[in-house]
TrEMBL record, chain A:
Sorted UniProt keywords: Electron transport, Heme, Iron, Membrane, Metal-binding, Transmembrane, Transmembrane helix, Transport, Tricarboxylic acid cycle
Keyword Hydrolase applies: no
Gene Ontology MF annotations: heme binding; metal ion binding
Species this chain originates from: Albimonas pacifica
Cofactor: heme
Cellular component terms per the entry's GO annotation: membrane
Listed name of the protein: Succinate dehydrogenase hydrophobic membrane anchor subunit
NCBIfam families xrefs: succ_dehyd_anc (TIGR02968)
Localisation per UniProt entry: Membrane
Residue intervals passing through the bilayer: 30-50, 57-79, 99-124
Membrane topology: Multi-pass membrane protein
The protein's assembly and partners: Part of an enzyme complex containing four subunits: a flavoprotein, an iron-sulfur protein, plus two membrane-anchoring proteins, SdhC and SdhD.
GO biological process terms, semicolon-separated: tricarboxylic acid cycle
From TrEMBL, chain B:
Location in or out of the cell: Membrane
Ligand binding (heme): 86
Similarity comment text for this entry: Belongs to the cytochrome b560 family.
Protein name listed in UniProt: Succinate dehydrogenase cytochrome b556 subunit
Gene Ontology MF: a single term: electron transfer activity
NCBIfam families hit by this protein: succ_dehyd_cytB
Topology term for the membrane: Multi-pass membrane protein
One biological process term in Gene Ontology: tricarboxylic acid cycle
Co-factor note (free text): The heme is bound between the two transmembrane subunits.
Length: 126, 128
């Protein structure tokens, strides 16, 4: 018998230890990605397929580099939140689910930080 | 009290097919999820290509070979459409969050507009 009220659970005191944090983070990153994508897509679309020197010249520009870093950082966070919901929906075995959720968090951090590092390295060199 | 029966609750059946005929809204919702998952793979591909560009000309040459191959171009074109569909349909979701466009006819019309916009934007970005 739990004495917790529904309101208490919503405040972040339920079994999930969070209230609407996931929902809200998903929305905040989604709204942020609208302008970021509009600015980041054009240089990225232009750069893919160009030569080594041309790609590095595009991301030597601070604006292009900053927009791509924002796209990668916010995008991978948004991706982690989204894939988390997919895993929670389809993986019912608790051990497999926990392993999948951990792997999701770590892979999103790994690839997100790798991408940020790569763009920063090009930008600082150029 | 709420989680007494945790782990032993009945699951809701898969509704589309046996109980519901496919609708625009449910189909586009599934496509939103599929494009989101596909974009995870596309994002890893682009990060790998960026890492190659940050590492040196030799490594970049192999990454460039992959993204400019016909298969790489096909994957990237698909990823671009997935990205722009997820972008347009995400905006539709954000509008729903404000309480607008929730009527069935409006939600369906906005969904059809999302599909058209995603295709037009994909061709626009790909060609320019």
């Amino acid at each position: 018998m739990s004495y917790k009220t529904d309101f208490g659970r919503v405040l972040g005191l339920g079994s999930a230890k969070q209230g609407t944090g996931h929902f809200w983070s998903q929305r905040v990153t989604a709204v942020a990605l609208i302008p970021i994508l509009i600015f980041a897509i054009w240089p990225l679309d232009a750069a893919v397929g160009l030569s080594y020197e041309e790609v590095r010249a595009i991301y030597a520009s601070p604006f292009n580099a900053i927009m791509l870093i924002l796209l990668i950082a916010v995008g991978f966070r948004h991706m982690q939140l989204g894939l988390q919901v997919v895993i929670e929906d389809y993986v019912s075995n608790p051990a497999v689910r926990t392993a999948a959720l951990l792997a999701n968090t770590m892979f999103c951090a790994l690839f997100g930080l790798t991408g940020v590092f790569a763009v920063a390295k090009i930008a600082f060199a150029g | 009290m709420a989680d007494v029966n945790r782990g032993n609750r009945p699951l809701s059946p898969f509704m589309i097919g046996p109980y519901y005929r496919p609708q625009w809204t449910s189909m586009l919702s599934i496509v939103h999820r599929i494009t989101g998952c596909a974009l995870a793979l596309g994002a890893v591909l682009i990060v790998w290509w960026l890492l190659a560009a940050a590492s040196g000309p030799d490594y970049f040459a192999s990454a460039d070979w992959v993204v400019t191959s016909w298969l790489g171009q096909l994957v990237l074109f698909g990823c671009l459409w997935a990205l722009l569909y997820h972008f347009c349909n995400g905006i539709r979701h954000l509008i729903w969050d404000t309480g607008l466009l929730l009527e069935v006819d409006k939600a369906e019309l906005a969904g059809k507009m999302t599909v058209v916009a995603s295709v037009v934007l994909t061709l626009l970005v790909w060609i320019i």
